[in-house]
Amino acid sequence: MRVKDVKLGEFYRVKGNEDYCWAQPIEILPPKTGINNTNAIMVKCRWVIHKNDKVGLNKYFRVSNLIKPKE
Question: What Cα–Cα distance (Å) separates residue 34 from each residue in 38, 41, 44, 46, 49?
């Protein structure tokens, strides 16, 4: 997936975890700025088991690891 294809607030799957959890992008972090000290563009996501969950973890993924769901 490319950065321009990522829409904040939509739900995506993560490569290698296609049938378990959902990643909902909150923020796109450019390389070498703020908390992102890598050379890749990272996406801060809310990581939940079900789409309607109120509580989730904040996780950081590379843009290339996000995939659109098969639904």
Answer: 10, 12, 12, 19, 28
Q: Which two tokens stand for residue 49?
A: 């088991």
Task: State the burial class of residue 47 (Cβ atoms within 10 Å of its Cβ: 0-12, 13-18, 19+).
Answer: middle
Tell me the pLDDT tens digit for each residue of 28-41: 999 999 899 999 99
Contact 59, 23 (CB under 8 A): yes
0.85 surpassed by pTM: yes
Contacts of 18 (CB under 8 A, 6+ apart): 67, 70
